[in-house]
Amino acid sequence: MAKKILIIDDDPVIVKYLETLFNDNGYETCTATSSLEGLEQVKKEKPDLISLDLEMPGEWGPRFYRKLRKDKDLKDTPVIVVSGIDGDHAIKDAVAFVAKPFDADKLLGIVKRTIG
Predict the structure, then answer these.
(1) Fewest beta carbons within 10 Å, which of 8, 14, 28, 54?
(2) Domain residue limits, the chain
(3) CATH class, range 4-115
């Protein structure tokens, strides 16, 4: 069965790009454009991995991450931060931090190492 990746980003261009990238490489995707929607999607879709933008309207990525880590069923979901701002410090347990504009092959390599 295909592994599922939840893409949380408020930029439709990035979302579409990541969807295509992951789909073309055999992953299923679901998306959210905000932290709140992201939390709903995580509960509903139970993704194997989350691609998280830090800077979003409403709640920023780090707040989403803190809420995720408080949920015992979801807290082990790996998160890759994909952001235009330096967020290494924002989410300490993230699997990786990938700066925008990102290298697709590098990102895919991280995803494959993380969830296969």
Answers:
(1) 28
(2) 4-115
(3) alpha beta
